[in-house]
Amino acid sequence: MRTFDSKDEYMNANFSLKEVHSKKVQKHSKNLAKSLDLNQKDILLAETIGLLHDIGRFYQFFTYKTYKDTISVNHAACSARILQNAQFFHDLPNNFFHQLMVATYYHNVFLLPSQLASEDLFFCKIIRDADKMDIFRVIIENPGGVIRTDKGPFVWSTEIWSALEQGKCCLYSDVKSEADRTLLQLSWIYDISFPYTYNYLYSSGVFQEFVNVIPQTVREMEPIQKALNFVKKKSEAFSSLKQ
Ligand SMILES: [Fe+2]
User: Which of 44, 163, 198, 218 is deepest in the core (most CB within 10 A)?
Assistant: First the structure.
């Protein structure tokens, strides 16, 4: 990270954003792994994946001055390539390196490949959940990035709304406006694997804070209320399991 420090404040602010994100995802991965009663080795693996899953982001921004994969590189594949090229990681024990690579490579795909081995799939799910635990914070705290500014009308596409009505993740290819982008981000709650994650999103208030970005008249509508209730119900199910 430090080798990417530049004299350019804009560049440094963007590097810092991903540095903070990586450390937070590391922490969320560790907490999630602990909640699943994993052994020490697997907790460390989950944590390592959390810390390194976005390592390609620094190269991406340094080279292309953007975090948009569509106009630069697939940052997950880029992260995996950097790990592959670092000899240090090849010396890691057992399946550690293999699972680090697989989880990093697949952390941003729309659908995980069905042919993945169950243990690989498990660590992919951990990093995808841990990433989501921090992504709503990133969006709220960095309005220059992806959040809408409330200045224009909140106009969404039929396909995006329809996916929300069905309780499904929206497709990037259906995004045509800033409102669509916000609703797509909202729909990520339909791709969460562990009850712990719902509990974190609900009890920390971060998901509600994210929803508050949507104009009140829209957030009172059924698909948005459905999403809020979905997170609440899943969170309550987790809490009752723990009692
Ligand atoms: Fe990522």
Answer: 198
